[in-house]
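Chain A, query sequence.
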Amino acid sequence: MSSGLFFLDVSSIAAHSDTQRILSCRSDHEGRHFFSQINYKNKTEADILLPQRGHGVSTTRDGRLAAVFARRPGDFVWIIDLETQQVMHKIHAPNERHYYGHGVFTGDGAALLCSENAYEEGKGVIGVYDVHDNYKRVAEFESYGVGPHEIKLLPDSKTLVVANGGIDTHPDSPRVKLNLDSMRPNLAYIDIASGRLLHKHELEPELHQLSIRHIDISSSNTVAIAMQFQGAANIHPPLIAIQRDDEPIKLLTAPDDVQTRLRNYCGSVVLSDDDSTFLVSSPRAGLTTLWSDDGVYLGAHGQADACGVACLVDGRARFLISDGTGAVTELSHDLTSTVYYASQKWHWDNHLYISHS
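Chain A, predicted structure.
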């Protein structure tokens, strides 16, 4: 097998469509970083060496192309053809901008939107890249906050939802958080045609250090939110929330023992294919927590260093979870799990995706 990969249980794989593929970034023991594409036939279709550590991935609606984003404060986005496994374009961040690790293609596939840091100005922007003009950067608009991270479109394909984490950074000190005392994270809804702010949601002032980082959006416009607390370690605020339309953010709390174990950090979030549940990872805790669409805690699954979460689209409310030890686990809605994929030398990065072609 390629890349030292071993499938531990392939029986469940046969039930999935051959058109569904796992996409993620990962690293090896030698410190090299890759974008990887894996199908359900025990085959690694692509391991593409990246210049830096990768983070998020976005695909076009037809599943043909993927945009692979550098981890903050990275300066590249690569466009990869998932059929040929070829790098089609290499986008470089403009002067005084860097990428925050996430982006999304517009519904018509005409543009790629990227969350970016205008670091000399200390504000977030959304860069607009013209797909039909070799991904030329043609515009930008405000993210209406600081530190925009994950961005996603509402089902109407007209509205962009931005998780503004609230943390100011600068590439001269790449991982230093410069404004912890004055953070103001928010969830911003933006009209992509005009760049106009439609509405914005902030947390209560006492939770201003609760960084809104990752989101997923249901077909009924419910936004599931995963957050990271930047305050004192002995405080354990809610880290998970839901929000819809112009309603306020609804904070969700796990049982006390689980809430404490989360160690103030959630890594990724994904809704089930029927939108009835969503899964949130917490790699520091080695837990993923399952929630109903209306915010009821349903239980937890233990998996060391688990961060990437994705949903299988087969009508059975099943998830995939990747971790830093090289494993991928399938988790059902009743929290039963099967580890069917493992690697002897890979470390999966923060996020996991399923492409559908």
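The CA atoms of residues 241 and 251 lie 4 Å apart. DSSP finds one helix and 29 strands in the chain.
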